[in-house]
Amino acid sequence: QVVLVESGGGLVQAGGSLRLSCAASGRTFSTYAVGWFRQAPGKEREFVAAISWSGGNTNYADSVKGRFTISRDNAKNTVYLEMNSLKPDDTAVYYCALSKSPAWDRGLRNFYNYWGQGTQVTVSS
User: Fold this and answer.
1) For each successive 10 residues of the chain (125 residues), what is the average pLDDT?
2) Which residues, at least 6 apart from 86, have a Cβ–Cβ distance to it below 8 Å?
3) Which of 3, 9, 85, 93 lies at a 20 to 30 A Cα distance from 17?
4) C-alpha distances in Å from residue 27, one per residue of 4, 40, 119
5) CA 33 – CA 57 distance, rounded (Å)
């Protein structure tokens, strides 16, 4: 079992910044990557960013590239998502997910095995 707990969500003004954290515990061995997905009301859950656990390779959705930065602290079993220049359409529930698949960089939900409960991010105009 792997448990992921997100934190750091909240309400911010457009153009502001927010930092999300994802703490992993349990059987985190054999982890290929940890990623972030988001789901806005009435929309499908979409890929945001991911980072490989060992090498730190990153992958970003085009919609957030240049604005969001994913990073990890292996010693703390924690992954971060720094969100800058936030827009109202960034509003969503953000989920942390862990992949034990070598296909993690495809950004597809099916290759992520464990999920957190999500944290709400609301960007007002």
Assistant:
1) 96 98 93 96 96 96 98 95 98 97 94 97 97
2) 12, 13, 14, 15, 16, 17, 18, 67, 121, 123
3) 3
4) 11, 30, 22
5) 9
